[in-house]
Structures
1.
Amino acid sequence: MAGSDIVALIVAAGKGERAGGEVPKQFQLLAGLPLVEHARRAFAAHPRIDRIVTVLGEGRSAVGETVVGGAARRDSVRNGLEAIGEATCVLIHDAARPIVPADVIDRLLAALQGATGAVPVLPVADTLATKDDALGDSIDRSALVRVQTPQAFDFTAILAAHRAWPESEEATDDAQILRGVGHAVATVAGDPLLDKITYPGDLALAGARLGAGMRVRTAMGFDVHRLVEGEELWLGGVLVPHDKGLSGHSDADVALHAITDAVLGTIATGDIGTHFPPSDPRWRGAESGQFLQHAASLVAAQGGTIDFVDLTIICEAPKIGPWREPIRDSIAVLLGLARTQISVKATTTERLGFTGRGEGIAAQAIVTTRL
Ligand code: MG
């Protein structure tokens, strides 16, 4: 199998009513993000996944490349496969399983070296019995496994199997559809973290599992720009009226630069100068919001989320107080966070030093992420 063209197909078109709530379960929030977005980020963070396609119900939207699903799950998968068109292999995954451990993906891709399909399975730990027969005889569970997703397939084989599957017949999963055309399916060890969100309590359990697996990172950023006449004053993405503005290669938004450095610091990936060198003419006069959004996208690509931003602007003038809320809102919009996750503070230096003399503005930021 070639190392490229591995596509993740996330199926999020179901109604998912058993988990409770008015929203289909794959759109319910876990740690502030819809389940489907957790799954997408897990695949995005895996180095071997080249492309991610999400199948949605009519009228729904999600991050990234999306396709509209069909009436039954297998119709949705079929639509997704047809939309992918060409690939070496595909991992078909249910959005109701928001936590996707990278090592399960590794095991599936390794198993595909010698098989057309591979699925993660777990042993059955509980006693199984038939309900209708007053529990009757218990069932021998040694021969049984729980089958999870993602399920990995040779792309051409699973697309052909879906096309050949009889219209009138239901299928429990894609492995069954592949077996339907005579292919064997390999099994790899699954993971309890992959458990499906089905009932209301499952969401809280997934939240606890997710939190336990994440590390909090805190990093700071600091920046200074010179105040000069004839420049605009941009602070936190807001144009603040003042008789002077900040000079620099970009729009010189000292506040966004400090936050960008703090965000980059949480993933230890250099600083704003590393990613947007002042020597590069592309960044002349650039809006600093794009620097911040790029830094945030690097955190997201590692499966991380930004929890909190605390910004301090240090200047004698202008007064920041009246601009505090607009700046909070601006940063919240840039980062896709709630206003309550952004703190904006300001201080003077009692007329001391360069900020006290009005020669420049300094900003410092502390950002907390989880990843
Ligand atoms: Mg700067």
Note: Residues 223, 225, 248, 254, 257 surround magnesium ion (CB under 6 Å).
2.
Amino acid sequence: MLENLFQNNATWARDRVRSDPEFFRRLARQQAPEYLWIGCSDSRVPANEIIGLDPGEVFVHRNVANLVIHSDMNCFAVLQFAVEVLKVRHVIVCGHYGCGGVRTALDEESHGVISNWLRPIREIADLRADELAQAESRSAFEDKLCEFNVQRQVDNVSNSTVVTDAWRRGQEVTIHGWVYGLKDGLLRNLHVSRSA
Ligand code: CO
């Protein structure tokens, strides 16, 4: 069962040690990532790989449609740990074009629990309906909404007690909003960064 995954893992671990014999021993002692990545669960958007970082270099939280909901204990426990314990310098909220979560949020049909989860995206669409109405196609509309969603989640991180408390203490942490393109593998900076 899933033997291929164990084989892949054994090969990967062996290759790692071959190029850096101390790699795992060093990592096992501590992690000191400079970045927290908050991204979509989509299997095509693997955080480490996209930004070319090794294990130990980026702390990661992913959920469907990269949402930061103030009542989400999971997300906020990650954010608090990243900021207060790991002392990351950058929090990156990264959405992606072609996000199934964003598309599903617009669907009139109910999809059960996931529709509840995605409800905040519908609210963003309602709030920014005028801007979205200028989109020339359905995909342009959805892409724009992906960007607006990232902007909103950057606001949610920035307005959180974890981040405002950190800024009040004088801790340097910057919040960024990016979007990844599934079609070209490239990141776009939305230039909505926030710092103290
Ligand atoms: Co997605």
Note: Residues 33-189 form a domain with the Beta-carbonic Anhydrase; Chain A fold (CATH 3.40.1050.10).
3.
Amino acid sequence: MDRYDALLRTLKLTRRDARAERTIVRLRSGVTVGGETLAICAGPCAVESAEQLDATAAAVAAAGANVLRGGAFKPRTSPYAFQGLGECGLEMLRASADRHGLAVVTEVLDPRDVAVVARYADMLQIGARNMQNFSLLREAGTAGVPVLLKRGLAATVEEWLLAAEYLLHAGNEHVVLCERGVRSFDPATRNVLDLAVVPLLAELTHLPVLVDPSHGTGVARLVGPMALAAVAAGADGLLVEVHPEPAQAASDGPQSLRPQEFSALMGHLAGIAAAVGRRLPAASLAA
Ligand code: PEP
Ligand code: MN
């Protein structure tokens, strides 16, 4: 651990030895992140319509996911790209999640929207581009709802944990980290999914960790293998993009799984989960 001593000295509230037990984040609807049961968050990159969202929610729930993802406020590289449906999208997320027995995770981009997003969501997502938006972190720290904090595009583990530290320092202990790949020199994949951080974070922090193999690879065919690897490495769950018609998606179609591909992945995941002492959400309901 010598290599990490300097890093650990910068941490107060997120470091592993700040708590006797690992943090288990409980979402409003009874879903837990960090316990024996994996949190499987699935859904479209963006909420595009009530029909698209509901078809996806029905499919991912049937396949055994327990959290619906989908952006109503989208952080797009171009100002001319689809920016999301805003509060209408939040209403759709809540309605579909309730209809299919799922919790909701959705991104908040702006500190001024934290309250409205927190009214609809069970967990606020702070995206990679906003990992060091300190005003947003401070506001989300007082929201009273759990926060999913994605790793920045080029953030070190120390910077990421210090960003999480902002949330805890502001009073929110319900924080989940999400590895989603970092920028590298190689355009062969969209990002480089850093799975070594999963066991590393288990040493450094008591906070749970999800892995997002969709943004981590940018290629739908690579999502399944990296999802399995993430769970094998000890991830507390996954964030996966699923779209009924990826070719028609308003954003991130190339990395989105079709519902039947997601369902097949869940089938393969059961064996990996069992091998590392975890279980899928549907398996826990059945148990
Ligand atoms: C997303 O989850 O759709 C998203 C925009 O993620 P990230 O912030 O990791 O790019
Ligand atoms: Mn996306």
Note: The domain at 2-12+36-286 is CATH 3.20.20.70 (TIM Barrel).
4.
Amino acid sequence: MYLLSQNKQDQYLKELFDFLRIPSISADPKYKKSVKEAAKWLANSISLAGCENIKIISTKGHPIVYGEKIINSNLPTILVYGHYDVQPPDPINLWDSNPFNPIIKKTDTHPNGAIFARGSCDDKGQMFMHIKALELMISNNDLPCNVKFIIEGEEEVGSDNLEIFIRENSDHLKANVILISDTGILDNNQPSITTGLRGLSYMEVKITGPNRDLHSGLYGGTVANPINTLCDMISSLKDNKNRVAIPGFYDDVIELTSEERKEMSKVPFSDELFKKSLDINLTSGEIGFSTPERKSIRPTLDVNGIWGGYTGEGAKTVIPSEAYAKISMRLVPNQNWKKISNLFEKHFKKIAPLSVKVEVTTHHGGQAYVTPTENIAYKAAHIAYEKSFGKPPFAVRDGGSIPIVPMFEEVLGCKTILMGFGLDSDAIHSPNEHFGVFNFFKGIETIPHFYNNFVKLYNK
Ligand code: BES
Ligand code: MN
Ligand code: MN
């Protein structure tokens, strides 16, 4: 175990702050230069940590950063993946501080302080823990195995170019396990290991009514209003049990056995605290399932954005010609995201009344993933968390998606261990995203335990 002096801790935070100051927003073309700058910053950082063969690989989109430390070809290899791109900070007026000028503030869940900045938790801060952990192992001369780092700048926009890269370079990326910190733990007193991710299918729809915006007095009541029609169509996508009403949607879903559900219910969770943390009076979701089940083992459908008509100041009496919505579906193992996208498209076109035209487009998507818990990598992670937190971790299936994880398995034949350190309350993708200072250093402490235990179990 490495004891970090106050000086060293301050130094690590200072470096992370420099990294967080670079607005590496992958979705917005205006930030292309900043994304590149973040890639360069990273390449330099992994080089200072002791990585060799460093490459900044340009792609059709944003660059991929690669580095490795191969000490002995007879030893196992850990492939560390992370992403240096971040979500747009919008809505910017809801931030209490500048999203790209990190500051440390205390919160209820982080009494030792948390780093407030876009990307602090997702995923720059969590990825940076791996660089510092590697630096410590190399400089203390006790790196126990080979390491490869692959860090992309397009996770938040679907990882399309990383997929191409790994397909073309699968030989080069060979590893015994993939290690990722881009998820969370239950809370700072109760560690957990993420053993599942949901899949995703992201759609956009456009409804067109009359060929131009109309005076709502002269025409109101005579033509289909595209926004009203879109709302009707969307509300018909869920039935009275809050199940997705697209024919065939559940066909491939693997239902959990009652034993598996019973096991899941042992993980501590308070509906009361959950409601309180979100200022809601009632949770809502598929009938017959608990909140933890609804957000992990069950698929769902949500509108992410909806627009059309007049939304400016004051009132304008108008029937809009067009209405739009972005709709995503979270999927579970064995559902195929491309098949689901097709089912959605077919169904959405079918339920449209003759009074409007419908266009449906598919954005990105990805498959769900489940980590097996019987292999040595999972065992090594379990021991690592138990050592650093003083408590054994629970296995928890998560609701978010990391589409490259199932892709790694398909292309490299390699399993992933999701060793995250964020909290659900860290507001990733939201205003005031933050990452606990405690969590940052706990991560740096836990990662070397994983390396050592993995190599030990591998040699057994
Ligand atoms: N790190 C998240 C995913 C995540 C967070 C999984 C917390 C589990 C717990 C990742 O950066 C992310 O936001 N993924 C996107 C998917 C992507 C295709 C845009 C998501 O889940 O919406
Ligand atoms: Mn992430
Ligand atoms: Mn994210």
Note: The CA atoms of residues 312 and 339 lie 38 Å apart.
